[in-house]
Amino acid sequence: xxxxxxxxxxxxxxxxxxFARSFFDIGLTLIYFSLVLIIIFFVLxxxxxIAWVAILAVLFFIVGIWRTEIDLKKLEDxxxxxxxxxxxxxxxxxxxxxxKYQKLIVEFTPSxxxxxxxxxxxxxxVEISSPPEADSPLLTKGEDLRLLINADPYLEIxxxxxxxxxxxxxxxxxxxxxxxxxxxxxxxxxxxxxxxxQIEKMESGEAGKPxxxxxxxxxxxxxxxxxxxxxxxxxxxxxxxxxxxxALADGLLFGGSSRLSxxxxxxxxxxxMTHIVAxxxxxxxxxxxxxxxxxxxxxxxxxxxxxxxxxxxxxFVVMIGLPASAARAGVMGTLLIWAMKNGRLANSQNAIxxxxxxxxxxNPLILRWDIGFQLSFMATLGIIMLAPxxxxxxxxxxxxxxxxxxxxxxxxxxxxxxxxxxxxFHNLSFxxxxxxxxxxxxxxxxxxxxFLTAVSGFIFYPLSLAFAWLAYLPLxxxxxxxxxxxxxxxxxxxxxxxxxxxxxxxxxVLFLIIFFLKEKRRLxxx
Length: 526
Fold this sequence. Notes:
Blueprint (H helix, E strand, L loop, with lengths): L2 H21 L4 H18 L3 H25 L10 E8 L4 E2 L4 E7 L5 E3 L20 H4 L4 E7 L10 E9 L10 H6 L3 E14 L14 H23 L4 H10 L7 H9 L10 H17 L4 H18 L4 H18 L7 H14 L3 H4 L1 H15 L1 H5 L11 H23 L1 E3 L2 H8 L3 H14 L4 H26 L5 E3 L5 H26 L1
C-alpha cells in the first residue's frame, strides 16, 4: 500500500467520523465498538502494515467524532436566552446591507458583560465582575461571545467600530423544516441573537484608524483599508452603470447576489447561474485561469503567472469581506490551478480531500450546515476526479479556455453538486449547461471591464464612463440570456423529498462508476 493511499484513507476516515457525528447522535456504544476493533486488529496483525492502517483509520474516525462533539457541546445549556445585556462590543465583519435592516456581527469579552433576567416594572441591569458558572459554558471558558444584530439600515456602522449595546438575547429558532437556521449561525460561532438593540457608537474603526478597537492589529488595519477601498469601488460602479446591470457588476467583482432584485435572483437560480455571483471553488478557478493568462500576457512565465493569479485570488477574497466561505473557495480554487500548472489535475484528489479534512478540523460543523463549503468542495472534487475522462480527449495543455473546457467544467461540477442543490434548493435546472456555455465565455472580460470602470473612477470620470458603456453591453447580455432561459416553461422543475440519504446514495453510485471506469482504463493501458 502506497503512502498516498494511506494518506487518503486517513483523511477519509476523519471526514467519515465528522459526517457520522453530524448526522447521528453517537453514544459510547459505537466508541467502545471502535476500540474493540482496534484491539482485534492489533492482536491479529500487529506486524502487518495493513492492520496498522486499519487501526489508524479507526482512530481517525473516532477523532472526527470527538472533534465534532466539542463544537456541538457548545450548543447545550445556553443559559443567556431571554436575558438583557449591556456590553461594549466590536464589529468583526463588514455589515451586510438588506432592504429594511443591516446585519451586524459583533464580538465582546464576557468579563465586561452586565446581565439580568427581564423583571416586572423595569429592566434593571447589574454588573457582574466575573461571569457566574450558572451562565453559559461559553462564558465560563473565557471565550469571546459573538452576537447577530439586525440594526437600522441608516446607521453608519463599519468594520472595526466599537459600539455600546443594550439588548435582549435570544437563542435562534428554526422557522422551517427545510432550513436549520440555528445551526447555520452556530457554524460561524454565533449562538445568540441580539433583539431590540439600542446601539451607541463609541469609536470608529473604519480603515483601522489610530486609537480604535482594531488599530493595534496590523491585519485588522489592512483589512479595514481594503474594505474601504472595495466600498469606494462599488460607489464608482453604481455611479456610472444603471440597475440591474450595476448589481450584477458588483456581484461579479465582489461576490454575492443580495444586490440583485428578487426576480433576477430567482432567474439566476432557475438557470443554475448563481455561481457566477457566488464565491465557490469553481468560480475562483475560472477567475484564476484567466489571471494566469493575464500574467502571461503581461510577460510572466507560466510558473510566475501562477503566483500572479494566487495574489489575485487573495486580494479578491479579502475585498469581498473575507468570509469563511470565500477563504475556503480560495483554497479550493488555488489547489485546482496548482494542479493545472503542474499537469497533475488527474492526480490531485488527495490534496483536495486533505484540504477539506483540514477545514473540518478547524470547523467540523461546515460539513453538514455550510452549503457553500459543500458546493465548493464537491465542484472542485468533481473537476479533479473526472479529469482523466476529458483531459485526453478534449483539452490540450496550456490552451486558452474555450467551449470544450467550459463544457467540461460545467458538466463535471454539476454532476457533483446536483444532490446538494436538490436537497437544499429543490430545483432541477434543464437550461444550466446552455446558460453556462452562453455566459461563462464572457464573464472574465466582463469582470475586467467592471474592474477598469471602478479603478478609472478614481482617476478620470470620463474614462470611467467610457469603460462603463463597454461593461454595460456584456452585463446586459448576461441578464437578458438568464431572463430568457428562465422564462422557458421547461427551464426547471421543483424536486421535493430529496433528502441527505438520497444524496449519499448518489455519491456512492457515482464513486463506484468512476472507480470501475478508472480500473477499466488502467487494465487497457497495461
